[in-house]
Amino acid sequence: MTELSLAGSRIRAGIWEGVLTGGAMTPKVEVLHLERPLEGVRVSDFSGHPGQWTIQMPIPVQALNDGVQTFVVYDTVTGTKLGHFTVLMGEVLENDIRTELDLLRAELDLLKRAFRRHCIETAS
User: Fold this and answer.
1) pLDDT in tens, 30-80
2) How many other C-beta atoms are found inside a 10 Å radius of the C-beta of residue 103?
3) HEC profile for 32-55?
4) Angle at Cα 116 formed by Cα 110 and Cα 118, nearest 5°?
5) How many other C-beta atoms are found inside a 10 Å radius of the C-beta of residue 22?
6) Cβ atoms of 3 and 22 closer than 8 Å
7) Residues facing residue 33 across a β-bridge
């Protein structure tokens, strides 16, 4: 039996997606949030990639709250943890370094535009 591995996860339009590799048969997986299984998990063949499957799951609105929300992906046949994904939201992130970096980038873009505009106006 080949061990499954999870890679390439992303969230797009409220749907988490990942790629499972390994095994000869379509894997059976579940996603848990706060130790409760979530509904809507779909596993399908990854077109043109034998031995790989796409996994998709809509993130339930009820699971989106302030703070850090972790979702854990398990192989239901072996009970093995395949991976996890995390959603960070709300005021808890206000002092987070990533939030600060995004704010600094936005301010830098604003300064670059103002500087370029100033250079064009003074060059004339």
Assistant:
1) 999 998 999 999 999 888 888 899 999 999 999 998 888 899 999 998 888
2) 10
3) EECCEECCCCEEEECCCCCCEEEE
4) 100
5) 16
6) yes
7) 36, 71
**Length of the chain in terms of residues written:** 124
| pLDDT range class, residue 13, cuts 50, 70, 90 | very high
Residue 16: how many other CB atoms lie within 10 Å: 20
Residue 80's closest CA among 18, 28, 11? 28
- CB-based contacts of 98, cutoff 8 Å, min separation 6: none
Which segment of 14-18, 33-37, 96-100 scores lowest on mean pLDDT? 96-100
DSSP state of 113: H
Cα(57)–Cα(86) distance, integer angstroms: 13
Considering the entire predicted model, what is its pTM? 0.72
Residue with tokens 């990942």: 18
Using CB atoms within 10 Å of the CB of residue 61, give its burial: 0 to 12 exposed, 13 to 18 middle, 19+ buried.
exposed
Query: Which residues have CB under 8 Å from 122's CB, separation 6+?
Result: none
